Amino acid sequence: MNLNQITVPSLDVLKSIAFYKTLGLELIVEALPHYARFVCPEGNTTFSIHLVDKLIKGQGIYVYFECENLDERVSDLQKNGIAFDELPSDRSWLWREARLKDPDGNLLILYFAGENRLNPPWRI
After folding, report:
1. Residue 1: count of CB within 10 angstroms of its CB
2. Which of 121, 116, 109, 103 is nearest to 9 (CA)?
3. 3-state secondary structure the chain
4. pTM greater than 0.90 (yes/no)
5. Burial class (CB in 10 A: 0-12, 13-18, 19+), 67
6. What mean pLDDT is predicted for residues 75-101?
7. What whole-number distance in Å separates Cα of residue 82 and Cα of residue 99?
8. 124 in a structural domain
9. Where are the annotated coiled coils located (predicted)?
10. Within a domain: residue 29?
């Protein structure tokens, strides 16, 4: 089994398209006003947004995007107007993470974990 796609809700698909293109995702499907799909710049995983009437309440989902050059990537995104809630920092689970929200409040985590992504010291 392989993870193909993650889909997140949006109140404004067009606004979200601009945001995710700024993050570096490549738009491959634009079915406005209801849907858009992107391919990640590395690998072949896709990410999509779909129009909803209202957003879910509570914490919702967390979407992780892996970046080998995390600190440089965050710096470049900030220069392009992307605001971060948390700048890159080392976490106790041995990942380096930066956190931000998309225009609909979905939590995005840009991270680098290296070998610890699949093989942390506590792996079963």
Report:
1. 3
2. 103
3. CCCCEEEEEECCHHHHHHHHHHHCCEEEEEECCCEEEEECCCCCCEEEEEECCCCCCCCCCEEEEECCCHHHHHHHHHHCCCCCCEEEEECCCCCEEEEEECCCCCEEEEEECHHHHCCCCCCC
4. yes
5. buried
6. 97
7. 11
8. no
9. none
10. yes
Residue 114 — very low, low, confident or very high, per pLDDT cuts 50/70/90? very high
What is the chain's length?
124
The type of residue at 97 is E
Give me Rg for the CA atoms of the chain.
15
Token duo for residue 46: 């896709």
CA–CA distance, 106 with 109 (Å, rounded to integer): 10
CATH number where 26 lies: 3.10.180.10
Residue 56: the pLDDT is 87
